[in-house]
Automatic annotation (TrEMBL):
GO biological process: isoleucine transport; L-leucine transport
Membrane topology: Multi-pass membrane protein
The family this protein is said to belong to: Belongs to the branched chain amino acid transporter family.
Protein name: Branched-chain amino acid transport system carrier protein
Species of origin: Sutterella parvirubra YIT 11816
Keyword terms: Amino-acid transport, Cell membrane, Membrane, Transmembrane, Transmembrane helix, Transport
Domain of life: Bacteria
InterPro entries given in the database record: Brnchd-chn_aa_trnsp_Livcs
UniProt cross-references to PANTHER family, sorted A to Z: BRANCHED-CHAIN AMINO ACID PERMEASE BRNQ, BRANCHED-CHAIN AMINO ACID TRANSPORT SYSTEM 2 CARRIER PROTEIN
Pfam family, one: Branch_AA_trans
Transmembrane segments: 41-63, 75-97, 131-149, 161-185, 205-224, 244-262, 292-317, 329-349, 355-376, 388-409, 421-441
């Protein structure tokens, strides 16, 4: 088969959407709407560029290059191994996978315990809250591991069932707000009042979905092949089309969530995050059923993302340590994540987030370079482009990560803060662009041909 029928292509697109759309994607747009108020749609335009555009381009870049390791290998083989390993560990058992259980627990079971006065209760000498969280994590990861055991069937499980269910539930909340408006959009707050597009751009960047995109591309390609597509060119083409479908769904869902947040921002005061914004909106529209609706939305979103991350991490680790096999790695990561989710996620975040801050700019630069050099063999004709641009980006971003931990000497920290765009966490952009421009001017020298007489 050289291409997918539209029905299957839609399933792949919905699968990609569901793998990306976790708790963070749920809470960013409504809080943006609550803060941006009348400037919501300008802010959303900037948000979509980085929160939708970069990740989808990342999936396409990985599909085109043949995998993250191949793409990163354009810099150097050692960099490819270290960078790829850091990405899979940081978005896998060290951060993102455990967080899916913790976040969904906060929205699914904690409100139930709170409503029944059980948060401080004891059971067999253990706190009810801790016991409930431990049991929830075990059951949550057991379910996620079961779904992830057959990665080639994710389009059937995520795209066919869970993703439509998630979209339907979010749609129900949106329609409820349309039929029973919460109020008018409020006034734009803080940075949204003077630069809504720029602030939205920064908020979208901070979702860090681009890192996940570098991993999901291979799983999506695997599912396309499982549907009978054999030509590599066709696999890349179908991945691009699935990415376009996912991008469209993202824009619609993000727009709906931003509208809900904008109305909630005008109606309620004191909201500190997107979860509170959605909870207020759901409670106002659906009454006692509101928390149930929110619990279902967060549970499905977190489960989808967890399954996607378990799949891509296990698929990678089976290639470097094949002993346990794919399914063995799924079980290993599920067990590790269950432990981390219950025994110090806050501590893990302190170490994992600086790592993400350090590697995220390099991930974006790799994607941009891949697209800028599409159809042009940069590795052959401009060999300095990838290593120089990524190296400069890496130096700046690692310095930023160390500065955020207070580990950078004051003189260097002061220099880092003085870089353009440092106040919004984008201080790496100008150095990266300059490095790229200089590297493009450096051509590979042609080999010197010596005559027979010269050789003699």
């Amino acid at each position: 088969m050289t291409g997918l029928p539209f029905k299957n292509r839609l399933l792949v697109g919905l699968t990609l959407f569901s793998m990306f759309f976790g708790a963070g994607n749920l809470i960013f747009p409504p809080f943006l709407g609550a803060q941006a108020g009348e400037a919501t749609w300008w802010a959303m335009a900037g948000f979509v560029v980085t929160a939708v555009g970069f990740p989808i381009l990342g999936v396409m870049a990985v599909a085109e290059s043949g995998g993250l390791k191949t793409l990163a290998g354009r810099v150097h083989p050692v960099f490819a191994f270290v960078f790829t390993l850091l990405i899979y560990v940081s978005i896998g058992p060290a951060l993102a996978i455990p967080r899916t259980a913790g976040t969904s627990f906060e929205m699914v079971l904690r409100p139930v315990l709170d409503a029944n006065g059980l948060l401080d209760a004891k059971i067999a000498g253990f706190g009810m809250l801790d016991a409930a969280q431990a049991l929830y994590a075990v059951l949550f990861f057991a379910l996620a591991a079961w779904v992830a055991m057959t990665p080639e069937k994710l389009t059937q499980r995520l795209g066919k069932f869970l993703s439509p269910a998630l979209i339907t539930l979010i749609g129900a909340l949106f329609i409820g707000v349309l039929l029973s408006p919460l109020g008018l959009y409020g006034e734009a707050q803080s940075a949204y009042a003077t630069g809504a597009f720029a602030r939205g751009f920064i908020e979208g960047y901070q979702t860090m979905d681009t890192i996940a995109a570098l991993n999901f591309g291979i799983i999506i390609a695997m599912n396309i092949r499982a549907m009978g597509v054999t030509s590599e060119k066709a696999v890349i083409s179908e991945t691009v089309k699935a990415g376009a479908i996912a991008a469209l769904v993202f824009c619609v869902i993000y727009g709906a969530l931003a509208h809900i947040g904008a109305e909630a921002g005008g109606a309620f005061a004191g909201m500190e995050n997107g979860a509170q914004t959605l909870t207020h909106a759901a409670g106002a529209v659906f009454g006692p059923a509101g928390p149930v609706l929110m619990g279902l939305i967060f549970f499905i979103a977190c489960l989808n993302t967890c399954v996607g991350l378990l799949s891509c991490c296990s698929d990678y680790f089976r290639t470097i340590i094949p002993g346990p096999g794919y399914r063995g790695w799924v079980v290993i990561f599920a067990l590790i994540s269950a432990v981390v989710a219950n025994a110090g996620l806050t501590t893990i975040l302190k170490f994992s987030i600086p790592v993400l801050v350090a590697i995220y700019p390099a991930a974006i630069v790799l994607i941009v370079l891949s697209l800028l050099t599409l159809g042009f063999d940069a590795v052959r004709h401009r060999p300095a482009v990838y290593p120089v641009t990524v190296a400069v980006t890496g130096v700046v971003s690692v310095a930023s990560a160390l500065a955020s931990c207070g580990l950078l000497p004051e003189a260097l920290a002061s220099a880092q803060r003085s870089l353009p765009l440092a106040d919004v966490g984008l201080e790496w952009i100008i150095p990266a662009a300059a490095a790229f421009a200089l590297a493009m001017l450096t051509k590979k020298r042609a080999p010197v041909m010596r005559t027979t007489e010269e050789a003699a």
